Amino acid sequence: MERDRTRARRRRHRHRAARAARRVRRSHRAAPRRRHRDLRRARGPARSRRRRARRARGPARRRRRAAVRAHARDGRGAARLARGRRDLRPARSGVPAVAPGVHARRCRRQGRADRPQLTGPAAPPTATVAPDDAAYLIYTSGSTGKPKGVRVPQRAVANFLASMRERPGLSADDRLVAVTTLSFDIAVLELLLPLTVGAEIVLATRDQATDGVALRGLLEQHRATVMQATPATWRMLIEAGWRGGPRFTALCGGEALSPELAEALLPRVGALWNMYGPTETTVWSTCGKVELGQGGVSIGRPIDNTTVWILDETGGLAPIGVPGELAIGGAGVALGYHARPELTTERFVPDRFASRPGARLYRTGDLARWRSDGQLQHLGRGDHQVKVRGYRIELGEIEVALARHPEVAEAAVTAQPGPGGEQRLVAYVVARGTAPSAAALREHLRGALPDYMIPAVFVPSTACR
Fold this sequence. Notes:
Blueprint: H1 2-22, E1 29-32, H2 38-43, H3 46-52, E2 56-57, H4 66-76, E3 80-82, E4 97-98, H5 102-109, E5 134-140, E6 148-153, H6 154-169, E7 175-178, H7 187-197, E8 200-203, H8 206-209, H9 212-221, E9 226-229, H10 231-239, E10 245-252, H11 259-265, E11 269-276, E12 286-289, E13 301-302, E14 306-311, E15 324-330, E16 336-337, H12 341-347, E17 348-350, E18 360-370, E19 376-381, E20 385-388, E21 391-394, H13 395-403, E22 408-417, E23 423-431, H14 438-446, E24 457-460
Parallel strand pairs: 1-2, 1-3, 3-4, 7-8, 7-9, 9-10, 10-11, 23-24
Antiparallel strand pairs: 5-6, 6-16, 11-12, 12-13, 14-15, 15-18, 17-18, 18-19, 20-21, 22-23
């Protein structure tokens, strides 16, 4: 009996080695094509996480259109394209397609004579990963119309998760509802942090995440204790009648948390945390617990092994209370932009405040100041970039796409508060002759931009500058 078990175990190891030879390996990049229930299988179980840790993940939003997808995959050089098992046709880009668990099922269905020769090692495959290996590659908006791929290393993700485990904190007794799409880097917290402490994850569907009543029902059904979301989602929940509870922890980030929304959330939760951080420094770089009578909502203090500096126009340190550009250093700084060395050099600069050789600072372009109580206050952007529904958007990228329409002579895009107080995109368009309709402009933009970058309002204008 023991001999049979040993033979079966060795055969399993050889099967895994054979499957690994067909799949992506360390330094390869794997791009999920679309949101599919089989992608949940790709995220678990725990036994396979060791193998997945060796390769960089490149999220691709399902609703992105062909132009954006093609550019992202060409720049990313994806080695594999993860898809659902029912859709294994070769991708249009020529990238080979794989689906979680498919090869194993095919091996079981084949006859013994047709099975591949399993000559691999009989011992379990070992995972080798270096701190500076890329953990994932994620794209953000670019001012020239060319998205920027941010390469985030394993060490940065490990530091982020270790810090979040302590502050704001998560335990095995918690139940976290995950509402974020894979194309948004804050999904890293939702999908990985609970696994480090043994907490439960409840995955919301797209429909549940975008419908206040449905999301309220999901939170109540599973007695959730933690959720991370943008201000727009929290506002939607409040409007749907969500009451929360004293054991509930709310994490809010992705865009500015207004004092009005904070006052509406505080009576509904046991703890409210305001989170801040650009993609280039790994999800969240600062966090702070929001309390009544705080004198305005701050973005808190740096997380573990992270440094924050407020720089004046000369690159020196700004005094306490004086606004300046926010620069971030420490363990969370990304490797840089994929295939964009000039832009990497411009934004990731040497950290002259650090004692470690080769340390770098990321210049965020955000304006901030230190308060006298040691908290950071965010003051907005110092350039042409905005955040809408948690997504970082370069307005120039939308303007470039609009200007490519044959009937558009000039375009300008701004972010303005909508009827509910949340930011929305407004495009001002100068026509060459007859002004194109809003529907025609939306259809044109859908061929080049993701849905969250399409303006909500189009305004005909005689001049944009």
